[in-house]
Each structure stands twice: as structure tokens, then as C-alpha cells.
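Case 317 in the screening queue. Each case pairs one protein sequence with one candidate compound; here the compound is guanosine-5'-monophosphate. For every case the pipeline is the same: read the inputs, emit a complex structure as C-alpha cells, and attach any notable structural observations.

Predict complex for case 317.
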Amino acid sequence: MTERALDGAPPQTPGSLTRPPQVDRVEASRKAVAARRARAALKRDVRMRVITPQELLRRALADPASPAGTMRVTEFLTSLPAIGEGKRDRILADLEISPVKRLGGLGARQRRAMREFLDARWPEQSARGRRSRLVVLAGPTAVGKGTVAAHIKEHHPEIMLSVSSTTRPPRPAEVDGEHYFFVDDAEFDRLIAEGELLEYATVHNSYRYGTARRPIEAALEAGRTVLLEIDLQGARQVRAAEPSATLVFLLPPSWDELVQRLVGRGTEGDEERALRLRTAKGELAAQNEFDFRVVNADVASAAREVVELIQSPERSS
Ligand code: 5GP
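Case 317 output:
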């Protein structure tokens, strides 16, 4: 009975009984950090044009407790292109919105004013008129265009997926005539010279890629739908050559996800990756030139959405 001290309670530090429960504070600050991160990711999506400002406003009003809904109007405005703090304050004064307001808490008149302001500066393009059965699928690098197109080819044999010609050498599993027609520079020059290409471009500053005109015309004449999976430069050329072509832009679910996909692919070095991300940023900025936008969160759903757009008989705005 000599060691009494051993069975005593653990020593108490001064004040340990009066402090608020540790777990509550930790949980609250964890939630605050997560909400701040979610808002920062959304602002990045607007800045990188993965979503339009109007889309962010719609999300905010649909759910005021969401990251979009809890975003302050001041934060929202400065995430838009070319709006600094001075301009932001003038806009808020014009719209008669207090700078402490959150997007989800805008009143009916303020929502209308904000919407009108956004529509005037960044009009959202809606689908124009009836489109033809020539369909272009484009989108930023690493968004998964190839995978979505391959999924459509596998599940919808009635849709013709155009086979491009390229000067790039084949990758191990690629088959000539199935994935691409692999040609040399002289042959590519001939295709251009003889007007056989509907469009062509040098992609990622390296190889040339082009779409043969004749097989496409034949398929369209036979009443088939034709899908081109090409880059943005090519999409613009198709638009110029065939203004009624249907242009579909494939979007990543978020900018962070696009970066993840590019990094995850692991096929490019640091420098090449940085170059492709810069290209992707420019490509995203072109999405309003397209008739439709489809988010590629999962391949099967994105492919289904593209097919529905293609097959719906009255694809008018
Ligand atoms: P990859 O070399 O990885 O197969 O394709 C590289 C890029 O070239 C992709 O962005 C793809 O969309 C684009 N591409 C493939 N075929 C064509 C084409 O015929 N024309 C144009 N403009 N781009 C193409």
C-alpha cells in the first residue's frame, strides 16, 4: 500500500474544465475550411469558363446553403473577367445590392438586376435553329472526347464516327484505317492540295490531323449522322464550311478535375503538361461558339447526352 499516487486521476491542467468542447471547434473550423475551398473551386470554374456566371447564379438561387449560395456578391463579381474591386463596387451600387449580401440571399429585384447585368456582358449562347446531322465533338485537352466518341461508336453503330488522317505515328494498339489513316507529310500535303479535307489542323504544335470530305458527304447523303471528334481549330473550320453543323462542346465537371485528368494520364512531362493546361484554358474560353455543352462527369452519361442531342428531331433553341 505504498504507491497510492499511481491510482489517482490524471492531473488536470488549469482551465481544462471551462473551455468549449474541443471537438465542436475542430468540426466547425473543418467545415469552414471545406466551404471556403468549395467556393474557391467554383470561382476558379467561372474564371476558367468551365461554367458561366449565370450558371453559378442559378446554382446559388436553387440552393442558398450551397457553396454557390453562400458566396458573397463581392467575391462573385471579382471572379469575373476584367472586374477589379473598384468596378465591383460601382456595379453593386448600380444594381442596388449591398456588398455584404450573399448570392443565395438576393431578393427578387436584385436577382433580376444581376441576371440582366450578366446577360448584357456575357450572353449565354443558346442553340441556333435547326442543325444538320454533321456533328462535331470538341472540348479541352484531356476532357475525354476520344473516350466519349469511342463509347458512342460502340453503342450506336448507326452513327458514323469519322476516321481522320494524321501524320502522327501509330501508338501500339492503334490500327490503320480504324483509329486513323496514318499518312506521311507528303500524302497529307496532297490531301490538302487536292481539296480532299473538310478541315485540318496542327494539334499541340506537333502533328497534323484532318477530316476527309468525301466519306462524310456520302454518309450524310445516305441519311446517316456523322460524328467528328476533332480539336477546336478544326471545329471552327467545320463551322465556317458548314454553318448548320451541330457543334457540341465537352466540358469537365470542374477545372480541378481537368487538371487531375491531365496529371493522372501521366503521358506528358511537366513542360508539356503546363503547355496543355494553357491550351485548355484558351479552349474553354471558346465554348460559347458551340451549340451545346455537355459535362463529362461519367463517360456513359455524357455519351448518352450527346446522342440525345444528335437524335432529337427538333433541336431548336
Ligand atoms: P491524339 O493524337 O491523342 O489521337 O489526338 C490529338 C488531338 O487531335 C485530339 O484533340 C483530337 O481531337 C484531335 N484530332 C483528331 N483528329 C482530328 C482531325 O481530323 N482534325 C482536327 N482538327 N483535330 C483532330
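Case 317 observations:
- The longest helix spans residues 22-47.
- Residues 145, 164, 168, 199, 201, 203, 209-211, 229-231, 233-234 surround guanosine-5'-monophosphate (CB under 6 Å).
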